[in-house]
Amino acid sequence: MDFVYNNGGPQGQFEEELAKHQRWRWMRTNTIDATQHRGSLHSMAQPSSGNPDRLGKHSHHGNSTHLVVKGDLRVKKHHGDRSTYELSDWPGAQRQDLVKPNLPYSATSTRGCTFVEAHESLSPQSAERFITRGTLRLEKKPGARWAYPSDDDLKRWLTQPILDASHVYPPIPEDFFTALSEWLEQEWQKPSWWKRNLWTVIWLVVVVALAFYFYYLGKFIAVLSRM
Q1: Model-level pTM?
Q2: Domain hosting residue 219, numbered range
Q3: From first to last of its 227 residues, what are the pLDDT tens digits of the chain?
Q4: Do 26 and 47 belong to one domain?
Q5: Final residue before a domain boundary, out of 71, 90, 119
Q6: 164 — alpha (psi -120 to 50), left (phi > 0) or beta?
Q7: Angle, CA 214 vertex, CA 211 and CA 217 arms, to 5°
Q8: Which residues does the annotated region (Disordered) include (predicted)?
Q9: Nearest-angstrom CA–CA distance, 123 and 220
């Protein structure tokens, strides 16, 4: 089992920048219209475009980011210091943020905003949303024994508490539940310090070894020159 991009991977300059240079793995480009009624936290679709006019209050299980492509995004935190900050395409303005896990936030826009939303790890809820909006699809690997679910069933399962699937409806077939659980466990498994810093350690060892090599080579040459 795997979740894969319908278009083969991140698309366009901004998504590719996040994928190649910042190592974000899951992303899509969203658009919201200029916010009409700022007193509400609920997203309101605009009849003219079908786009929402804000991001309603929500949070994500892992680190996430917004990178503004065009327009402005005013982000309000709903926990801790409850501060507000703005991302914008104006020259010199901050265009990208980092949202910590489980931090509730909402966002509005003065001019409307197109932005890339990216995640380090894919949660079931984000997977459902990305599938619904056409960014991702579920792929069955060769030899898998589970039956491919209908789109409606898959979306329902991803939005329900699948870690305790005893009350999920419609019931999740055991073989599919096992495959999905294994995928999520691997997706959210944190790499060890050695795995995350392996190349840094290798380069450090190489640099130190070269430094010692040239140091003792210089001393050896100096001894030879005095003979």
Answers
A1: 0.76
A2: 194-226
A3: 899 999 999 999 999 999 999 989 999 999 999 998 766 555 566 657 789 999 999 999 999 999 999 999 999 999 878 899 999 999 999 999 999 999 999 999 999 999 999 999 999 999 999 999 999 999 988 888 888 888 889 988 888 766 666 677 778 888 888 898 888 888 888 655 555 566 777 878 888 888 878 877 777 787 777 76
A4: yes
A5: 119
A6: beta
A7: 145
A8: 35-64
A9: 59
